[in-house]
Structures are given as structure tokens and as C-alpha cells.
UniProtKB/TrEMBL annotation:
The chain crosses the membrane at residues 184-206. Keywords: Membrane, Transmembrane, Transmembrane helix. This is General secretion pathway protein GspL. The lineage of its organism: Bacteria, Pseudomonadati, Pseudomonadota, Gammaproteobacteria, Cellvibrionales.
Length: 338
């Protein structure tokens, strides 16, 4: 079974430290010894030693030039050099690894220990570092004796191993690094302003295109709405014509119940009335009551416009009301004028 901590491992990297890897990559790009920006933005440093003077910029030797930055080179007998090989997976923790190595390897007291380090190479699995450890008191005695300087921040303090300069931390390099940081901030601000200007121009162009697009969209919607209205009116007109045609066909095929009801009302008179009326096409089915139901049936049978009149049920008396109930099926004459 895998350890729970290994669930976050990918190619040897702890993915929980992804933010630190990102931060370390940016720090190396801006501040590292191999940074492409340091040779252009960092200041030239005049390195003085007992053997003469040299000029360096971003750790590389350059031609003599006017500069305000000065550094002093410690002799090798005052420096403890040590090579470190750190796994690539620990790249985000290089500063902590170096500090731990210094605390475990320094022969000097903790308060008297100074150090610096630089990258000298890397391979697929390891990062190779050169570490320089010094005694602060011994270094200051040397600087005071040789250069008559007693201010810790007056000069930078360097060591050199196999031609690679190493800046000892805690001396005058802070001023140079602060100026380098201010240059980075100014360039970042300038790039930000350029990006904002570019974004503004793109936004202006996009806004103009958006306004034009909205105009054409509105015009298209207006034309489409007019076309839809015309199509709807045409469809409504067709529906109305179809409705009129169907109504005319129905009116021609089936008699109007109002007309038939009016005719029955006239034929029945005041002595009879209809209880139920049903009309399906040219067929009528009625049920009514009258004082003399037989005379009513006789009258309807002889009425013009009726092709056939028959009684599906016998005439029956309605209780003690003195009325008689009759039922008739009537078939209208086809094409007859009701």
C-alpha cells in the first residue's frame, strides 16, 4: 500500500508545494545567477582584492566601467567552501536546505557565521551548489586590517571558488539588490502601463465593433419582426378564409338549429313545449309535453319541410299534471327551405 504522502507525488515532485515551485521559478528568473535580466539591469560591481581590481556584472566578468558598487574579496584561507548536491524535488526549498547545511557544517558560532551560495549546475536528478561559509568576526578583522574599513554595510563581501564569485550575505549587497528591485518594479510598472494601453486600444476596437454589431443586430431584428408580422398576417388571412369556407360548407350542409327551433315554436303553439332537443345534421330528436300530444304529433307529421316523422316511444301521461309526454324523430328534407 502506498503511503498517504505519496499520493501527492508526481515525477518526484510534491504537488502540494506547487505554489512554492512557481514562486521559486519566478525568483530564479528575476534574481538567479542565470537570470536573463540580471546582466541588463543589475549594476556593475568593482571587486577589489589584494591582487588587484576586477569588474563583475551578474556574476560575470565585464570591462571596466564607472560604478558606485564596490566589493571586497576574501582570501581562500578565510572561507570554508563546500559542494552541495540537492535533489531537484527540493528546488523550492533551496534556501532552507542551505541554511540547514550551514548550521550543521559551520565550525563557527551561530552568531558569528556568515555564508553565501551559488548554483554551479544541475542534471536530471540533482542541483549542484557551491557554498561559502565565513566567520564574521574574522572577516571584519581582515577588512579592517587590509582596507581600513570597519562598517559592515560599507562594502559587499565576496568569496571566489574556481572562478565563480559568491556573495556573502549580510554585508553591503543589500543596497545594490534594493536598487535592482526598484528597476524591476519600474520595468514592471512600464510593462503594466503598456499592457493597459494595449488592452485599452483592443477594448476600444472591440467596443466599436460591438456597437456596430448591435446596430446591425437591431436592424436585422426589425426586418425580421416586420417579416414575421407580414407572415403572421398572411397566415391569419388564410386561416380566416379557410374558416369562412368551412362555415359556409357547414351552413350549406347542416340546417341552423335556431331556425328549426323557431319553426317548432311556431308549430307547437302555447299548449306544448319542448323538454329536450337534439340535432345531428338533418336529423332532429325531440321530447316534449302537451295537453293533447296526439294532435301535436299529427301537426308535426303534416308540417312541410319534414321528410319523415316517427315516434320511437308511445305517448305517456305525466303524473297528475294533465300533460302528455311525446318523443319524435324528425328527418329534414334535403335542400328544403326551413
Amino acid at each position: 500500500m502506498l503511503d498517504a504522502s505519496q499520493q501527492w507525488q508526481l515525477f518526484g515532485f510534491d504537488m502540494r508545494n506547487l505554489g512554492r515551485y512557481w514562486q521559486q521559478a519566478w525568483a530564479e528568473f528575476l534574481w538567479g545567477d542565470q537570470s536573463p535580466l540580471r546582466p541588463r539591469l543589475d549594476e556593475v560591481v568593482l571587486l577589489e582584492s589584494e591582487s588587484g581590481s576586477e569588474y563583475y556584472q551578474a556574476g560575470r566578468s565585464v570591462q571596466p566601467t564607472a560604478t558606485d558598487c564596490q566589493a571586497l574579496l576574501l582570501p581562500d584561507d578565510l572561507v570554508l567552501f563546500k559542494r552541495l548536491r540537492v535533489p531537484v524535488a527540493a528546488e523550492a526549498e533551496l534556501a532552507a536546505v542551505v541554511a540547514l547545511e550551514v548550521s550543521s557544517s559551520s565550525p563557527f558560532l551561530a552568531d558569528d557565521t556568515g555564508y553565501g551560495w551559488t548554483r554551479i549546475g544541475r542534471d536530471e536528478q540533482h542541483i549542484h551548489l557551491q557554498l561559502a561559509i565565513v566567520s564574521l568576526s574574522a572577516s571584519m578583522r581582515y577588512i579592517g586590517r587590509v582596507y581600513d574599513i570597519h562598517d559592515l554595510q560599507a562594502r559587499e563581501l565576496w568569496a571566489r571558488s574556481e572562478g565563480e564569485p559568491i556573495v556573502i550575505q549580510g554585508f553591503g549587497e543589500t543596497k545594490r539588490l534594493q536598487r535592482y528591485k526598484r528597476r524591476l518594479l519600474r520595468i514592471s510598472a512600464l510593462l503594466g502601463l503598456c499592457a493597459l494601453a494595449l488592452l485599452g486600444m483592443l477594448s476600444l476596437a472591440a467596443g466599436s465593433s460591438y456597437i456596430e454589431m448591435r446596430y446591425y443586430n437591431a436592424l436585422n431584428e426589425s426586418v425580421s419582426a416586420q417579416a414575421r408580422d407580414a407572415a403572421n398576417m398572411r397566415a391569419a388571412l388564410l386561416d380566416a378564409n379557410e374558416t369562412i369556407r368551412v362555415v359556409n360548407e357547414i351552413s350549406a350542409t347542416y340546417p341552423s338549429p335556431h331556425v328549426e327551433l323557431a319553426k317548432l315554436t311556431h308549430l307547437l303553439g302555447d299548449d306544448a313545449y319542448i323538454v329536450q332537443y337534439l340535432q345531428q345534421g338533418e336529423g332532429l330528436r325531440i321530447r316534449g309535453r302537451a295537453i293533447d300530444a296526439a294532435s301535436v304529433v299529427q301537426k308535426l307529421t303534416s308540417a312541410p319541410g319534414y321528410a319523415e316523422v316517427n315516434s320511437p316511444q308511445a305517448i305517456t301521461a305525466v303524473g297528475n299534471t294533465g300533460l302528455q309526454q311525446f318523443s319524435l324523430n324528425i328527418q329534414l328534407k334535403a335542400g328544403a327551405d326551413s
